[in-house]
Amino acid sequence: MQKCEYNKRDCLLYRSCIKKQxxxxxxxxxxxxxxxxxxxLVNVIICEFNPFHNGHKYLISEAKRVTGAYATVCLxxxxxxxxxxxxxxxxxxxxxxxxLGGADLVxxxxxxxxxxxxxxxxxxxxxxxxxLKVPSTLVFGAEDTDTDALISLARLGARAVNIRIxxxxxxxxxxxxAVYEAYFxxxxxxxxxxLKPNNLLAFEYIKAIIKNGAGVGFKAxxxxxxxxxxxxxxxxxxxxxxxxxxxxxxxRFMPGPVTDEIDRLRFEQTALFALKSASxxxxxxxxxxxxxxxxxxxxxxxxxLSLDEFYRYAITKRxxxxxxRRVVISVMVKNPMGLCFxxxxxxxxLAFNDTGRRLLKSLKGRCTKPVIVKPADTPRLGxxxxxxxxEERCTDIYNxxxxxxxxxGRECLDSPIYIEKGSCxx
Length: 426
What we know:
This protein is of the alpha/beta class. It has helices at residues 8-39, 54-67, 91-100, 111-114, 118-131, 148-154, 158-170, 175-186, 197-212, 240-245, 264-277, 280-284, 293-303, 307-314, 321-333, 354-363, 384-400, and strands spanning 42-47, 71-76, 80-81, 85-86, 105-108, 136-142, 216-222, 233-234, 237-238, 347-352, 371-372, 417-418. Strand 8 (233-234) and strand 9 form a beta hairpin.
C-alpha cells in the first residue's frame, strides 16, 4: 500500500476550508433560528408592576396557556408610573421580578407616554408591540373576557364622542363622567362595561389596536382574585393598591420580597419645592398644563403645606386626581409639553432571559424601531435624544428620592438585567 504524505501547507489549507464550511453552517443555522423565532406567537403585556405580585404572575402563566405563545414580552413603565407617583421599586428591579415571575423580555415604555394619560399610555404600548414585527397577542386582565362589547364601543366615531364629551364638560360634569355619558348616549347597551376599571383599560388597548396596531391581536384573561384598586384580598391575591398600602403585612401576595425604595417625605418636599418655585411661563411648557391652569397651580402651591393640601386646592372637575398627580411629576422632571405626541423613538431593554435573548436576536432587521441594549448609545438617535434626556432626569430625580440616595448619571450606566435559567431569587 502506498503511503500518502501531505505537507504542512496542504494540511493548513484543508483545515481552513473545513473551518469556513462550519462557520457558514453556523451562520445559516442562526439565520434560520432567527426566522423561526420571529414566526412564533408572542404574548405582549402592557404593565407597570408597581409592585409585581401574584396576580401578575398568574396573568403571564395563564395567558401562555390560553394562547400557546412561546414567549411573553412585558412593556413596562419606568421609574414614575401612570398614577403620577414614584414607583415603589426602580424599573430594573421591577423588570427583574417580572422575568423571575415568568416574563421573557421586559421593555420600557418611555416616560413621556407614561405621564400622558391612559389613552397615550395604551397607544404607546400598542405601537411598541406593532414595532416588534412578530406575530403577537396583547393580553390583559379584564372583568369581562367577552370583548365584543368593548370592540363595538371602540369603533364609535371619535368625532361624535368628543362632541358629547365637550357638551358634558360644559354642563359641569367631571371629565370621567362626561366620557362615560358620551359613550352611553351612543351605545347604552355596552357602555356600562366601562364602569369596571379593568374593562376600561382593556377598552383603551382595543381602541389603540383598531387605530394603529396593525398585526397585533388581543385576548382578555379573566382577572383572578381581588379587583383593581380593591381594598379586599382573596386567597393569595391582592390588588397593587392594597399591597402598597399594607406593604409590611402583604408580602404573601408577592412572589418575592418588596420594599419601598422611596423616601416619601423627601418626595413630598421635592414636589412642593418644584411647584412653589415654578413660574407661569415654566408651567406652560410642562405636559398636562392646559392654558390658564398654570395660574391655579401657582395659587394652590402658595397655600399648600402638603401635597394632599395642594391636590385639594388645585383639583377641578376637568382635572382628575390622577391627572393632577401626573402634572406634579411632569413639573418635577420638566416633562416638556407635546413630547408624548411624538413618534415612538426606540425600544429600551430592561431585563431578559434566554428566551428573551433569542427573541432579541430575531428582531434584528425586522423591528421598525432601534432596540437599545446599551443605554449610552441612545442619545445618538436624533429625536430619541429628547426622550432619553427626559429619562435621565427621571432616573436622577428618582435616585435622589430613594431612602438611600444614589448619585446621578445612572441612566447611561445601568445595563439590562440578564436572568439565567434556574434563577429564583429577586
